[in-house]
Structures are given as structure tokens and as C-alpha cells.
Specification:
Layout (H helix, E strand, L loop, with lengths): L3 E4 L2 E4 L4 E7 L8 E7 L6 E6 L6 E3 L7 E6 L4 E6 L8 E8 L13 E2 L3 E6 L1
Parallel strand pairs: 2-11
Antiparallel strand pairs: 1-3, 3-8, 4-5, 4-9, 5-6, 7-8, 9-10, 9-11
Length: about 120
């Protein structure tokens, strides 16, 4: 079992920035592709970004390309999501997850461990 804890969410004005962190427990962190997903009220959970275990490969949803940056520090068992130029439509609960199952990096079903989420609210 893996425990994931997100932090760094909050209220920010449009155009502002936030940096989310996801702290993982255990000794297997470095072997997983890690992803960020988000879910707004009344909407399905959607893919935001992912990063391979080595950090060499990153993936982004079209809606966040050029604004968000995913990174990881395996020595610290932590994944980050730097969010710049935030828009009101970015408002959601953001979840980090470990990709421990076969499948596409954009598919929530390929991720087997999830954090509890952190709220991001962007005002207009």
C-alpha cells in the first residue's frame, strides 16, 4: 500500500500561480509513473499531467500545456505541479496518483493509489 498526501492548494486570483506537492510514503515511489488529476463539482475526473519514474517523459492535457509543469524528486518521494497563469476553469480538487496498472497515462483506471485531494480555487 502507498499513501499519498497532496498539499499546496488554496484560493488564488486569475493569472496567479500555485505549486502543489504530493508526498508519498514507502520505498517504492521511484518505480511509479505519477499523475495529477482534477475534478470539479458535477464533472468527471480528468487527466492533468503525468511524469515517468525517471522524470524523462512528461504528459499534459491540452488545457494546461504551457501553463502547468510536473516534476518529481525521487529522493524526497515527492511530485510537484507548478501551476501558472491560472484560470477560473482550473478550479477543482486536484489529486495525485501512482500508475501501478497497465494502461494509458491519461486513464484514471491505470492508477491504483490516490491521494485525498487538495482544493484549488481560482477567482475571476
Amino acid at each position: 500500500q502507498v499513501q499519498l498526501v497532496e498539499s499546496g492548494g488554496g484560493l488564488v486570483q486569475a493569472g496567479g500561480s500555485l505549486r502543489l506537492s504530493c508526498a508519498a510514503s514507502g520505498r517504492t515511489f521511484s518505480s511509479y509513473t505519477m499523475g495529477w488529476f482534477r475534478q470539479a463539482p458535477g464533472k468527471e475526473r480528468e487527466f492533468v499531467a503525468a511524469i515517468s519514474w525517471s522524470g524523462d517523459n512528461t504528459y499534459y492535457a491540452d488545457s494546461v500545456k504551457g501553463r502547468f509543469t510536473i516534476s518529481r524528486d525521487n529522493a524526497k518521494n515527492t511530485v510537484y505541479l507548478q501551476m501558472n497563469s491560472l484560470k477560473p476553469e482550473d478550479t477543482a480538487v486536484y489529486y495525485c496518483a501512482t500508475k501501478g496498472l497497465p494502461g494509458l497515462v491519461i486513464s484514471p483506471g491505470a492508477y491504483n493509489y490516490w491521494g485525498q485531494g487538495t482544493q484549488v480555487t481560482v477567482s475571476s
